[in-house]
Amino acid sequence: MPLEYAIAVLVTLFVVVDPLGLVPTYLAITHGLPKRSRSNVALRACLIAGAILTGSALIGDWLLRTLAISLPAFRIAGGLLLFSIASEMVFGVRIERQSKAAEQALDEHVRNIAAFPLAIPLMAGPGAITATVLLAGRTSGDLFLLAILLAGIAAILTACFVSFMAAQRIGKLIGITGNVVLSRLLGVLLAALAVQFVIDGVRQVLGA
User: Fold this and answer.
1) What are the pLDDT digits (tens) for 169-191?
2) The pTM is what?
3) Residue 162: how many CB atoms within 10 A of its CB?
4) Number of domains within the chain
5) Which of 24, 119, 129, 206 is the most exposed place for a label (fewest CB within 10 A)?
6) Does residue 27 contact residue 165 with C-beta atoms inside 8 Å?
7) Cα–Cα distance between 189 and 17 in angstroms, integer?
8) What is the pLDDT of residue 111?
9) Rounded to whole angstroms, what are the CA distances from 122 to 13, 16, 131, 146, 207?
10) What string of H, E and C letters represents the secondary structure of the chain?
11) What's the confidence (pLDDT) of residue 75?
């Protein structure tokens, strides 16, 4: 069970956050900045996203109970939201949207580009927050599984930081075609995970 849960956490968060897919956006946002500034942006973005996802993991379930929202209902809604994101990835809409967000940030001269649009909404957006809350709900209060989830969040954000640090090399290695293909493949995988969330929610509602 812990191993299966750990795999589910890593796969789900990796697909939703998509560290490699963020590389083109990171390059666009930090274009023209000195190397030290780019490193600071990468570190701050990962810390901000980590704080948001950790908060979602720790108090997300409590918030649902406070709002009288059942976990099965959130599973179904979250699954549909993740499926929407997956469809955007498969059809290339997400990449276009990320590029527009980056351009908007540059055009408006946003002071802290680490917070927007990198940390929010690209790294810790609705999909990542939803996935984190759903994964936290699967722990059923088990502190060991919750620790696995928090470790998984840290691992994915570490992968994001490493990707940002190697952004120049990764961009040249993957290329435009490679990034498009990778995004499509991850989108299909995320769609399957989203459907599974919906199935689990429906089963709980029906008591199956």
Assistant:
1) 876 777 767 767 766 777 787 78
2) 0.72
3) 14
4) 1
5) 206
6) no
7) 13
8) 46
9) 13, 10, 14, 24, 36
10) CHHHHHHHHHHHHHHHHCCCCCHHHHHHHCCCCCHHHHHHHHHHHHHHHHHHHHHHHHHHHHHHHHCCCCHHHHHHHHHHHHHHHHHHHHHCHHHHHHHHHHHHHHHCCCCCCHHHHHHHHHHCCHHHHHHHHHHHHCCCCCHHHHHHHHHHHHHHHHHHHHHHHCHHHHHHHHHHHHHHHHHHHHHHHHHHHHHHHHHHHHHHHHCC
11) 77
Which amino acid, residue 6? Answer: A
d(C-alpha 49, C-alpha 206), whole Å:
35
Separation CA 98–CA 23 (nearest Å) = 11
Q: Which domain holds residue 187?
A: 2-206
What token pair was written down for 17? 């956050």
**Residue in the block written with tokens 């998509």:** 18
